[in-house]
Amino acid sequence: MAASIAGVFEENLKSAVETAKVLVVGAGGIGCELLKNLVLSGFKDIEIIDLDTIDVSNLNRQFLFHKQHVGKSKAAVARESALTFNPNACIKAYHDSITSSEYGVSFFKRFALVMNALDNRAARNHVNRMCLAADVPLVESGTAGYDGQVELIKKGLTQCYECQPKAAQKTFPGCTIRNTPSEPIHCIVWAKHLFNQLFGEDDPDEDVSPDMADPEAAGGAGDALKVASNEKGNVERVSTRSWSQSCKYEPEKLFHKLFHDDIKYLLSMDNLWKKRRPPTPLLWGNLPDAVAGCSRNDIESVLKDQKNWSIAECAQIFADSCRNLKNQFESLKDDDHLVWDKDDKNAMDFVASCANIRAYIFGISQKTRFDVKSMAGNIIPAIATTNAIIAGVVVLHAFNILQNNLESCQTVYLRPKPTHRNQLIVPEKFLNPPNPKCYVCSPKPQVTLCVDVNSMTVKDLEEQVLKKTLNMVAPDVILDGKGTVIISSEEGETTENNLKKLEELGIVDGSVLKVDDFLQNYELSITIVQRLVPKDGPDFDVVADSSQLKPKEDKAESSGANGASDQDDDLLEVVEEQNPNFTTADSKKRKTAGETDDGISKKQKTKDVVLVVRGEI
């Protein structure tokens, strides 16, 4: 079916649509709808890029894909399917990552506009910077369940994607995960850690054994070793991976250690259970086969993924998944490991069964496999209709951009329920102007790095600060005033600096680092402030506004500046100051969609927001 827009659009828009070269980044839920909309609207010169291949779980909402496409490139199949709607279109597909060096600023400059249909923050950050550097309009979009959002990003006119802080993924104290879980998510995190300890990348920070160093458990831990002894009665503490390999991943032995011996070990820590319900150890041959609050008929009438499992069923699923994962793991080459994937049946069964068994032990409500998948994958189930609506709004923004009518491209929110004005699709009244303190799109981007120069290494600076925190890809760093090359993107050029402390290379309090990421065409100045690492505090702070480092006049102000809790690592803290340019009426916070894995962000245009990122190495 060929698209025809004759008589639908004004002649100037029709011409602009037919001649514009546009880029779609992402061929998933929104991307499929967006590509279909573009070819049916008359766009003839389209390029689409996506690194992923098609999975069975995509088929319920990514309608350009069908069962026979599973395992194939999303971008390539989306192109083939979209051409059936309009064979006259010219679509070029890339099965690649948009962050690859091949897609630099010159690549982005080829397009009249770019439309994001991504599902991760790292790629969004990168495309945001590319479009700023190329001075190309970017239409950003995201969905989460019934919520959705579309916004224009244009250099000098609107906020960029990084103008406002994005909430960090929630983390939990290790002692809570290992010793005293109280919520289903604690058990799910523990089960994912267990998967990695047994079959994945063995990370000491993800130990699932009882935490003997838990300060709350002081006293009573000595007797626990007798309970947690091995079959010969010898007292020893070995890694979970080593112990599992020694017993050849036998499900019954794994079960006994994880859900009986380790639980009895925890029970011996008397201080933990003075104000908590103590856990109940389980025995393999004596497991309840009923589901609380459900009859057998109720359970059988529910879809497999949405029914509650009895503990006996969990144990059987645990055993089956252990055997299957063991076979997969042992078939790998030396030093290779499995990677947990929510769409891998055995991996998902393992985590769901382990999480529910542990939840039962600690008196925590159990979750269906569907719920565990949503929580473990940190996802909100996608809704096909939401994707369709948001993709439609993206194309409407594209029409306005091609007519140079950027002022009409206000941020648009899709709500799950009508507002007091009976609106489901809610536009902002005005474009959100750039944040003058943004370290990405401000005229002279700069930040302050508070760090102990005697303990941070150059490698930590590159990996933890520049790449992980400031979202750079291949940074070059020079010590301003001396011209010393600290970090080079040329392989091997500054390898000898990696293990050196910052102070060894002349980086001290007050030093200024000039950072240049050639791939992103992005430059940044970093001012160093010497600070000893506080006890139980982050190893460094990255502050987008140096005035926030000045002492506050009173205790109330000081408290407000520190916003977020200090208990978790790598928290994003929002330090807000009232903008005097807005009236009291304007200063009311607009309710927006929350930050999700699909990139919907909370925004408050009535305040200047200063970003403080706290991190540990």
In short:
This protein has 617 residues and is α/β, with parallel strands linked by helices. The protein is 30% helix and 14% strand. The longest helix is centred in the middle third of the chain and has 20 residues, at 311-330.
Which features would summarize this protein structure in a list?
Uba2; metal ion binding; 8-stranded mixed β-sheet; Structural Genomics Hypothetical 15.5 Kd Protein In mrcA-pckA Intergenic Region, Chain A; SUMO activating enzyme activity; alpha/beta; 617 residues; Rossmann fold; Arc Repressor Mutant, subunit A; transferase activity
Could you walk me through the main structural features you see in this protein, from its secondary elements to its overall organization?
The chain is an alpha/beta fold and 617 residues long. It has 3 domains: 11-168 and 382-427, NAD(P)-binding Rossmann-like Domain (Rossmann fold, 3-Layer(aba) Sandwich); 174-376, Ubiquitin activating enzymes (Uba3). Chain: B, domain 2 (Arc Repressor Mutant, subunit A, Orthogonal Bundle), CATH 1.10.10; 446-615, Ubiquitin-like 2 activating enzyme e1b. Chain:  B, domain 3 (Structural Genomics Hypothetical 15.5 Kd Protein In mrcA-pckA Intergenic Region, Chain A), CATH 3.10.290.20. Helix content is 30%, strand content 14%. The strands form 2 sheets. An 8-stranded mixed sheet has the order 3-2-1-4-5-6-7-8, with helices on both faces. An 8-stranded mixed sheet has the order 11-10-12-13-9-14-16-15, with helices on one face. The chain is globular. 41% of the residues are buried. One of its GO terms (biological process) is protein sumoylation. GO terms for molecular function: ATP binding; metal ion binding; SUMO activating enzyme activity; transferase activity.
